[in-house]
Amino acid sequence: MPHAVLNGNVSIDDIFNKLKGVFIRNESGILKTDNIYISRDKTAIIIESLTIESGVKRSFFAMIGRRDDGVVVRIYQGSEVEKTAGVKSILGEIAKQLLAAFPQLTIGETNLLEYLK
Fold it and tell me: pTM for this structure?
């Protein structure tokens, strides 16, 4: 399962308040995030996400979840989506946004390193 752990101390509430949408259009297709939701206990954020690659549309929920050592960006476990380059790119873009907004975060365990550049 594609994921990026970002180590460091940051609150989900702070992330929710700084998170911006993703919209990228290039020769490969379109990557877009839309509405975001925060859990009542402020331990997770769900992000409506969409990729269009080679004319194929894929909708899924990305998730930012709290961990003892920081946060994890991954596909929400209730989403069944093919793990394409576009899906991984959206997760990478979300993680890059967090790294830029919160300098105390560092890249931890991930299988998305090529998407974090």
Answer: 0.96
Using CA atoms in the order 61, 43, 89, 81, what is the torsion angle rounded to 10 degrees? -30
Which bin fits 55, alpha (ψ -120 to 50), beta or left (φ > 0)?
A: left
b/e sequence 73-111, b meaning 16+ C-beta within 10 Å: bbbbeebebeebebbbbbbbbbbbbbbeebeebebbebe
Contact indicator for 82, 95 with CB cutoff of 8 Å: no
DSSP notation for 60-83: EEEEEEEETTEEEEEE-TT-----
Contacts 24+ apart (CB under 8 A), 34-39: 38/12, 38/13, 39/12
- Rounded Cα–Cα distance for residues 64 and 52 (Å): 22
Residues 41, 106: Cα–Cα separation, whole Å: 24
* Tens-place pLDDT, residues 16-72: 999 999 999 999 899 999 999 999 999 999 999 999 999 999 999 999 999 999 999
